[in-house]
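In the previous chapter we treated chains in isolation. Here, by contrast, the input contains four separate entities that must be folded as one system, with a combined length of 834 residues.
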Amino acid sequence: MSPDIGRLVPGRPGAPTAPGAPHGGPAGGPAADPAGDRSVGGARFMAAPVRRAGFPSPAGPDRSRRGPVAHAGGAAPDAVQVPPPRKVGMRDVARLAGVSHQTVSRVLNDLPNVSDGTRSRVLDAVRILNYRRNLAARTLVTSRSRTIGLIGFETTLAGPASMIYGIEKAAREAGYYVSIATVRSLDRHAVLDAVEQLCAQAVEGIIAIAPKNSVADALAQAPPGTPTVGVGGADDGAVPMLRVDNVRGACLATRHLLDLGHRTVHHVPGPADWPEGRDRIDGWRQTLHAAGAPVPPVAAGDWSARSGYLRGQVLAADAGVTAVFCGNDHIALGVLRALHEAGRTVPDDVSIVGFDDMPESGYFLPPLTTVHQDFAELGRRSVGLLVARLDGTPIPTSPVHLAPSLIVRASAARTQV
Amino acid sequence: MSPDIGRLVPGRPGAPTAPGAPHGGPAGGPAADPAGDRSVGGARFMAAPVRRAGFPSPAGPDRSRRGPVAHAGGAAPDAVQVPPPRKVGMRDVARLAGVSHQTVSRVLNDLPNVSDGTRSRVLDAVRILNYRRNLAARTLVTSRSRTIGLIGFETTLAGPASMIYGIEKAAREAGYYVSIATVRSLDRHAVLDAVEQLCAQAVEGIIAIAPKNSVADALAQAPPGTPTVGVGGADDGAVPMLRVDNVRGACLATRHLLDLGHRTVHHVPGPADWPEGRDRIDGWRQTLHAAGAPVPPVAAGDWSARSGYLRGQVLAADAGVTAVFCGNDHIALGVLRALHEAGRTVPDDVSIVGFDDMPESGYFLPPLTTVHQDFAELGRRSVGLLVARLDGTPIPTSPVHLAPSLIVRASAARTQV
DNA sequence: GTCGAGAGTGTTAGCGTTCTCATCCCCGAC
DNA sequence: GTCGGGGATGAGAACGCTAACACTCTCGAC
């Protein structure tokens, strides 16, 4: 099933469907039809191997036109009735190619049992008429919309943005369209609305960039028959999930700092109700424990630079702080600034490691050592998971974890002991 | 029972179609005619106190079921035939409410000439069956998909991301769904493909986050009947455009620096083939001219921090440089770093102004003075423009410009003369 | 020659809505 | 009483497509 036959972009190169084109020769009306050779291809075609004694005439009164010629009074036998710009349909293509609409359908769907000659004749007709298959009709009869829904939330975090692109691309390759719905906040109710909106569009499945449990819960409420997949959050098993292994990422970061000789590592976490934030805290804490290092207290914040700045000011005032692992790069940016304002240099006085590896991290002052996660890949994989569910392929029930990696730049250094 | 009739989110609050439903207990139930309507609700209802006792029976042989029950031979009078999980349609609602499907349609579309009693009866039935209108069928007959297409490109720039949210939100409020297509590069061909993909979905219009002329050109090729709108780029009149007044923004920035006493202002531009970049250059140059200040040469780059860093190194080596206007905040970040590495402090030695006001700009070192543009608003307005075109409302032919504003922070200061 | 298999093709039903009429009522005007 | 008008409904007919058959040939096997 060539993913999408329909899209034949004829126009591009040349042949702007020329003269009579747009509406397949209204050939309809005029039975005898001198008109027959009006439409460019029409002539070529109709004349062609008109199969068995060509079409006596489209049996019956030709139901193909809509308004059955209202202009009674008009003598006009040539019925040049103004063609209500009817869109070209399979019927038109069929007529032009001299076959039945069913055969056209077969060609378009790449089904077997169509002779090469017929096939190419149909394809030509399609091209000439600039025909495009009507998705609605198709969806109606197959009850497959070939569309997946994507729930995103309002943020300019680099991660979600990259994921959107990754998802759309992967979906297209898998033969699906992507419809989006965004939520302002991540509370259950808002997400439920988004789910509802997407269902109204009859999407076949839903992917949510879902960093919180509330989102996953809402997702789990999607009507049965509409599989869902969450990316990046939730630690209950409500819905199949996919994300970077945050625990491991935090380990990497913390260990790196410990290895540089720091006695312990402080942490400026993201919001407490985000599983990703919690996982990073866990990874950090575990590593500290394993190394027998003291575990400093953490104060919850959000993912913003502002949050990092605020918390950074506190940390900066504490001479005992020599290494800080930040919940994400934005936070790190804020911490960096607070440290700078307090006169403590990085990495000489304090070492910093972030998380996410946003595109600008390499240009912070100093360039930020951080944990990289491949968002685009995450998006891609999530589509894979969803498609598998749509196909009924069994999928792992536990969250899928992608491995993050540490990007060493200049914000963390050996202690100055 | 109720296998899953309604594929949907059962009542959010509570009452999952349960017995207690809105009106009187349909509790009764199964009784009447076992064989008859095996349709879940059907039974429940017909038996129920369907208002005016009346409605003898939905007259007619009930063509409503599909396969007329093949199991002829089967004795099984109780017809527990496995219910091919048919989706609930208007017909089911109609039957339940004791009206015709046409009346249901009228209620759902809020048309006049439906008595209050009937209306609420229908609404109840809808609720109970958890009925949801089939968009495909609707689209097929109305030839309105109520969907608009959005073309975005792969970037983590904060602008595009914010616009996506703004667009989706505005579209939803206007009653449209949003389907996306992304392009890896902004060349004509790629965009044409995206347009094609969206058209295959029968979107009613297309909005492109289209910072380059090539995109606008491709957009102009959309089939007639599919209006398009571009956001943020293109200066030829190929397509209705909407964007922030970049010339004015650049003026604001340049003038601010000049007012601080700088003899002239250097500029690190974005890519030369982006109208937005060009406009910023123009605004900067015009302001310089107007002030009689010398116009330093500019070297093209791209929008990245890296580009700014590279160019910044050159500028940093030039003692004559005291003020720099950067094409965007990312570039500014790179310039900031280059300056820092060269030992020149900001803003004491050199003043910097950026463009875009990305969320982190306030936490750069030092906090960046920059030009703010309201991306979300841009997205919102673009939907307004597209909807106007869809409605046939005349719209301005020249690009719509939104006013940017200057956000003064700490990266630009009076010269140290 | 008869048959059966199977390729190639056409015919006919729907899919679930909306649209266009036709119908049925109830009312006030004549 | 009869009629016309308008409100409330219902009965099909599309919409453009795919699915399920039915049909027509052509071959090769018997």
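Chain A touches chain B through 73 residues (CB under 8 Å). Residues 51, 99-103, 106, 112-115, 118, 137, 139-143 of chain A lie near DNA strand C (CB under 10 Å from a C1'). Compare these points with the single-chain example from earlier in the chapter.
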